[in-house]
Write a structure and sequence with these properties.
The protein is mostly helical. 81% of the residues lie in helices and 4% in strands. A two-stranded antiparallel ribbon has the order 1-2.
Length: 114
C-alpha cells in the first residue's frame, strides 16, 4: 500500500467541505457539531480509503468503485438526518456501520490483491 499524496489531500479537503456542508445545513447547535464531526470522519475514511491509497499495481479500481458506492450511502444518511427529525443514535449507528463495513470489505479486497 502506498499513499497517493495529492489524491489524499484532495480527499481530505472534500471531506472537510462535506462536513461543513452538513454543519451549515442544520439548525440546532448541538446537532451541527455532532454531524460535522461524524460526517467529516465518515467522508475522510471513505474518500481517502478509495482515492488516496494505492493498494496494488493492478485491481485497485474495485476498491475505488466500492468507495463511491459507500460515499453515496453516506450522503443519503446525512441528507436524511439533515432534512428529517434528527435522532443521534440512529445517525451515529448508520454512519458507523457504513464505515466499518467499508473498512472490512476493503481490508479483504486489499489482502486478496496482494
Amino acid at each position: 500500500m502506498k499513499l497517493k499524496t495529492v489524491s489524499a489531500l484532495v480527499s481530505v479537503g472534500i471531506a472537510a467541505l462535506a462536513g461543513y456542508g452538513v454543519y451549515a445545513a442544520n439548525a440546532s447547535e448541538e446537532q451541527k457539531w455532532i454531524m460535522l464531526g461524524v460526517s467529516a470522519a465518515t467522508f475522510l475514511v471513505l474518500l481517502v480509503g478509495g482515492f488516496g491509497i494505492r493498494y496494488a499495481d493492478r485491481g485497485g479500481s474495485n476498491i475505488t468503485i466500492l468507495s463511491v458506492l459507500f460515499t453515496v450511502a453516506a450522503i443519503i444518511v446525512n441528507v436524511v438526518a439533515s432534512l428529517g427529525a434528527f435522532h443521534l443514535a440512529p445517525y451515529v449507528i448508520a454512519s458507523g456501520v457504513i464505515v466499518l463495513l467499508y473498512v472490512g470489505i476493503v481490508s479483504a479486497m486489499a489482502k486478496a490483491l496482494n
